[in-house]
Design a protein that fits this description.
heterodimer, A: 475 residues, six-stranded mixed β-sheet, 12 helices, 13% strand, B: 297 residues, alpha/beta, seven-stranded mixed β-sheet, 8 helices, 13 strands, globular, Peptidase_C13 (chain B)
Chain lengths: 475, 297
């Protein structure tokens, strides 16, 4: 991860030696494999423009201004060190992480403290040892996985997102555009009338509302999914589908709240299921007069709904907020749904995952060829394999130099090629012709024919031998 | 809340799939179709990821005195052919090649989604096969057969490509135990209706339709499954006790040595009821409210 550290004026005490001994490469050896992450840190003083930006009133504005000035290539980080007395950062907060790829660090303590801060910051903003091991999850025994690994969608080449009801472009599209680097998305929506929950909520007298407890939530999804069928998870798409449902309860069951395990109603009134999607319950005000004419026009507050759905989308993609070290402040990502550095995190993990997948796929293909000797590999399958290997190698090379974007593209190509090679339909025909079946087929044919042939051959041999002996005898 | 999440994820799977195969055709093999359709109903109650392969020549067979129906019980209470049976591979499409293609995923690109097994490494798959079998093979449609070696190799390829988390293999044929002898991939549990050298017997002869309606092993397994509801805690050891020799005449067998978890801890609903793992959403992100003013019905 290329990290650039910039010192604002007055942030460094005068008695530090120059040049600052920051130019060391930090290599973190992660125990599973030997992934090296060089973090060269090049300290440099601020330029005049950056100074002006850092003089801004609040951290958020400074971040916005700095974004325009810096090198925003994928995968890199810029850290600005501001003086201890600076008013940019609120009290008690030592580090501020912005929406794009920069962070502000308050200079406090000596050089060593700053170095640990930087290390923490790099871990938060790019990757940690545990996230890399999670990406390599199919190599590890089960005990080491955290719950996060099971929750997120394995990297795939395309995804369908099905929110309902319509009118989502404003909110969902910006997030999907940002994520379009990772995968291709297509969005569909649908309205289902008379949908049934499948679980009966309990009526709670104290709050005069209906409650769904956590135990009953897992059983809600199936009946609903069966109805969703045709449109979203239909024959057209082969990619994994994420469903986001908004459930408006019927009047006899309103208002409906979801209860967490302590019995308190959940603030978001929503839950999600890993690799599937999320459901939110939206309670509609009962009409004032019972004689109001039906059907009732309902205005759904899309902002509230989309806030929850986008949060669920982030979780389903593995972008959860892990434990932050103390005194860190994260800027909320706003309308785009995720910050640039979060996208980088996703890309790091997915690149590693892709490369691992390519290596397991090609290894198993090779093992298959070893076991069954008489398979014929067609030329196009062979060329896919070569392409997969070349792309995987270039992805690894680019990872070590830190070019994240190119590394990710290369890893995606490698996965596509290796999947195409492994799942080629032509590989099936010649796989299943075991040796014992060959014997079983040919022996009944050849054995009866072979008996008279062998016997007459033996007879011929005997006769020629006798013939050879006789002339000598007669003489 | 983290330990709650740990508990939910005990089995490690997030979705369920089923592949149900009936390998016989012709009228006198009515019971195999009825077996498969009854298992289909019992799984479909809770799941929609099912690949069903049937010869499908029973309901509209000219010899069927009650056309458009397939019954599995002589009381004729339940028509298992019903209204919402989706047969994915029918008639002559039920071949060994297609079955292996479904399992390994080597499908021509033009195949529709309903005919594919789109499982991933977090899927628990149930595979149920029924028909006529022998020692080490299973007959497909009276014209070809699949051997236990091929089946074991197909499962190994599924494991290599991480197409399943755990796999439950149930087979109801004569000498069914021979079909799971050769498995060598991890996380497979297998049940069979009879041991090598024994025949599986049928049940429920019906004089009105003129054929046997079900096989014994499947009949008792389905009775057992009727009592499973989505929140049930019954485990696999109970399933192994189903259909003892006194009822089934043959000796059902099972194999669990390849399975990593103890069968005591494996819930029936891990395979037969699609109980999704859910988590409460506790975070939201804040959006700019200037973009509000967008209402919909």
């Amino acid at each position: 991860v290329p990290v650039a550290v910039v010192f604002a004026p007055r942030s460094v005490p005068e008695d530090l030696p120059r040049p600052l001994p920051f130019g060391d490469v930090q290599e973190m050896e992660i125990s599973v494999n030997c992934e090296r992450s060089p973090c060269p840190s090049l300290p440099c003083p601020t330029t005049a423009q950056e100074e002006a930006a850092l003089d801004a009133v609040s951290a958020r504005e400074a971040d916005a201004a700095l974004h325009l000035l810096q090198d925003t290539s994928s995968g890199s980080l810029t850290v600005y060190v501001v003086p201890e007395i600076s008013s940019l950062l609120p009290q008690g907060i030592g580090v501020y992480v912005g929406k794009h790829r920069s962070a502000l660090v308050r200079a406090r303590g000596g050089l060593a403290a700053l170095r640990t801060r930087l290390q923490q910051l790099t871990q938060v903003m790019s990757f940690t040892a545990s996230s890399i091991t999670a990406a390599l999850s199919d190599r590890l025994p089960d005990g080491q996985l955290g719950p996060d690994a099971r929750r997120h969608l394995k990297s795939s080449l395309g995804t369908d997102v099905c929110p309902s009801p319509d009118a989502v472009n404003r909110y969902v599209q910006p997030v999907l555009d940002k994520l379009s680097l990772v995968a291709n998305f297509s969005v569909d929506s649908q309205i289902l009338y008379y949908a049934v929950l499948g679980v009966t909520p309990r009526f709670d007298k104290e709050s005069s509302s209906f409650l769904l407890s956590t135990h009953s939530l897992p059983h809600v999804i199936n009946p609903v999914e069966a109805r969703l069928g045709e449109h979203c998870s239909s024959a057209a798409s082969l990619y994994p589908v994420l469903n986001f449902l908004l459930y408006v309860p019927e009047r006899s069951h309103s208002p409906l709240y979801i209860q967490d395990k302590d019995g308190a109603p959940v603030s978001t009134n929503a839950f999600h299921s890993p690799r599937w999607g999320g459901i939110m319950v939206y309670n509609v005000e009962a009409p004032a007069s019972p004689q109001a004419s039906l059907p009732l026009h309902v205005d759904v507050d899309m902002v509230r709904v989309m806030e929850v759905f986008l949060a669920q989308l982030r979780l389903l993609f593995g972008l959860s907020r892990e434990e932050l070290p103390a005194e860190f402040l994260l800027e909320s990502p706003g309308n785009e749904g995720l910050a640039d550095w979060e996208l980088d995190r996703l890309l790091w993990a997915h690149t590693v995952e892709n490369i691992a997948t390519v290596s397991t796929t090609l290894t198993s293909l090779a093992q298959l060829l070893d076991k069954i000797g008489n398979i014929v590999i067609k030329d196009d399958v062979a060329s896919e394999v070569y392409r997969a290997v070349a792309s995987a190698q270039s992805a690894m090379a680019k990872l070590t130099t830190g070019h994240l974007h190119l590394a990710f593209q290369a890893s995606k190509e490698a996965v596509t090629s290796s999947e195409r090679a492994f799942f080629d339909p032509s590989l099936l025909h010649l796989l299943y012709f075991p040796d014992d079946q060959k014997f079983a087929i040919y022996i009944p044919l050849f054995l009866p024919m072979a008996v008279p042939i062998l016997l007459s051959l033996a007879k011929i041999v005997r006769e020629t031998r006798q013939h050879k002996k006789e002339p000598t005898k007669m003489d | 809340f983290q330990d709650q999440a740990e508990q939910f994820f005990r089995s490690g799977h997030t979705n369920n799939w089923a592949v149900l195969v009936c390998t016989s055709r012709f009228w006198f093999n009515y019971r195999h179709v009825a077996n498969t359709l009854s298992v289909y109903r019992s799984v479909k109650r809770s799941d929609s990821h099912i690949v069903l392969m049937l010869a499908d020549d029973m309901a509209c067979n000219p010899r069927n005195p009650k056309p458009a129906t397939v019954f599995s019980h002589k009381n004729m209470e339940l028509n298992v052919y019903g209204d919402d049976v989706e047969v994915d591979y029918r008639s002559y499409e039920v071949t060994v090649e297609n079955f292996l293609r479904v399992l390994t995923g080597r499908i021509p690109p033009s195949t529709p989604r309903s005919k594919r097994l789109l499982s991933d490494d977090r899927s628990n798959i149930l595979i149920y096969m029924t028909g006529h079998g022998g020692n080490g093979f299973l007959k497909f449609q009276d014209s070809e057969e699949i051997t236990n070696v091929e089946l074991a190799d197909a499962f190994e390829q599924m494991w290599q490509k991480r197409r399943y988390n755990e796999l439950l293999f149930i087979i109801d044929t004569c000498q069914g135990a021979s079909m799971y002898e050769r498995f060598y991939s991890p996380n497979i549990m297998a049940l069979a209706s009879s041991q090598v050298g024994e025949d599986s017997l049928s049940h429920q002869p019906d004089l009105g339709i003129g054929v046997h309606l079900m096989d014994r092993y499947t009949f008792y397994v389905l009775e057992f499954l009727e009592e499973i509801h989505p929140a049930s805690q019954t485990n696999m050891n109970d399933l192994f006790q189903v259909c003892p020799k006194s009822l089934c005449v043959s000796t059902p067998g099972h194999r669990t040595d390849l399975f990593q978890r103890d069968p005591q801890n494996v819930l029936i609903t891990d395979f037969f009821g699609s109980v999704r793992k859910v988590e409460i959403t506790t975070e939201t992100i804040s959006l700019d409210h200037d973009l509000a003013g967008f209402a919909s019905k």
